[in-house]
Amino acid sequence: MPASRSVTRAVSDVLELAPRRGEVTLHRLLTAVSESRGRAIELTTADLPPGVCGQWRQYADRDVFLIQQGLPTWERTLAHELGHLVLGHEGMPVAQAAMDTAEFASDDLIGYMLNQRTGCMGPSGEDAEQEAEDFAALLIYRLGRMPSDRASIVQVRLGEAFG
Question: Which superkingdom heads the taxonomic lineage of this protein's source (predicted)?
Fold first, then answer.
């Protein structure tokens, strides 16, 4: 299934922020998005619960992307989390998710839920996850096709259109 217009537009908007000189990398795009928003984005690795590759945490003064330590495909996970941010996804608060899904919760269940990605909980969670996946795939694809010193985004789009 092709990416939606909102996902395609979000990827294009992020790539418009890319530096005009030097190699265009995911790290440099992250810095550009941070500067554009006027809000710090930190990247760190962590020991996340089994099955969780990445998390986006919002704080009052910054955003933090946590990537599972030792993950071999961390770029895709980072692009996925960036997709959540630029697409404006918001997760359900963990406490609300717990109240909605469990009448009585053991200490183990509460601990498990506090470590889960809240973005995939709730009625629109699956759509948000698919959008973030589409964003990551398209961003990684376009990054791979960008010249190191790009003169114009038109070159990239012509290359995509005509191979």
Answer: Bacteria
Can you give the pTM of this predicted structure?
Answer: 0.72
Domain assignments of the chain as residue spans, ordered by start:
5-38+83-147
Q: Which long-range contacts (CB under 8 A, 24 or more apart) does 3-11 make?
A: 3/134, 3/135, 3/137, 3/138, 4/131, 4/134, 6/87, 6/131, 7/83, 7/87, 7/131, 7/134, 7/135, 7/138, 8/138, 10/83, 10/86, 10/87, 10/135, 11/135, 11/138, 11/139, 11/142
Give tens-digit pLDDT for 68-115: 999 888 999 999 999 999 999 986 555 554 565 556 656 666 666 665
